[in-house]
Write a structure and sequence with these properties.
Shape: globular
Strand content: 5-15%
Helix content: 40-55%
CATH superfamily of the largest domain: Response regulator
Largest sheet: 5 strands, parallel
CATH class of the largest domain: Alpha Beta
Structural class: alpha/beta
Number of strands: 5
């Protein structure tokens, strides 16, 4: 690409940050690179960075549970391409990431040159996965994934906090909203997921989350 692009790298591993920076600069030398080391920093960066063109997202950075970081970005900025970066390169994990709307999946074991090619492909408007992800990439989205993908950004955050065992009062404090607003979000989450209780919602989210081991 000839024009300068803004890339957000969301990863808390210094060595991996260095490799991803090198790969981005190889794909687009003049890129402006921002970094986020945890979920809260990621949320702030997205809020402040209307000009972000690409996100490189570590599935297991602090504050992220399972695919929640990817779910949040896709709900908040559906037009923004996301490349998932993970040490877990199991086909099921790659497949779920693609189902949630990732434009590419980069295993952390890849050499920098391969990462560069993946980043270049996405910046050019394409999609990229390792060869072994092909079967998973063609799989139709599961009902669970489609229901989770229908949540709004705030509903994703509320579901994450429910999974952590937080009460409505605690969630309201964390999000700086009223308890009534939290209750409304919870009701909407239950309806979208097709369940009757908070516990069932957490269990449903966990079925997808368990497929992704910590990287």
């Amino acid at each position: 690409m000839s024009e300068t692009v803004h890339v957000l790298i969301a990863d808390d591993h210094p060595l991996m940050l260095g490799a991803l920076r090198q790969a981005v600069q190889g794909a687009t030398p003049d890129a402006r690179i921002s970094e986020a080391s945890d979920y809260d920093t990621l949320v702030r960066a997205l809020s402040d960075g209307d000009d972000i063109d690409l996100v490189l997202l570590d599935l297991s950075m602090p504050g992220v549970r399972g695919y929640s970081g990817l779910m949040y970005i896709r709900a908040e900025r559906p037009e923004l391409p996301v490349i998932v970066v993970s040490a877990n390169d199991e086909p099921a994990v790659m497949g779920h990431c693609l189902e949630f709307g990732a434009a590419a999946f980069i295993p952390k074991s890849l050499p920098v040159e391969a990462m560069r090619k993946a980043i270049q492909t996405v910046l050019d408007g394409g999609r990229w996965t390792p060869d072994e992800a092909g079967v998973a990439a063609q799989r139709p989205s599961s009902l669970i994934v489609r229901r989770l993908a229908s949540l709004t950004p705030q509903q994703v955050r509320v579901l994450m906090m429910l999974s952590q065992g937080l009460l409505n009062k605690q969630i309201a404090y964390e999000l700086s909203v009223s308890e009534a607003t939290v209750k409304a979000h919870v009701s909407a989450i239950l309806q979208k997921l097709g369940v009757e209780s908070r516990t069932q919602a957490v269990i449903l989210a966990g079925k997808v989350e368990k497929a992704q081991a910590l990287s």
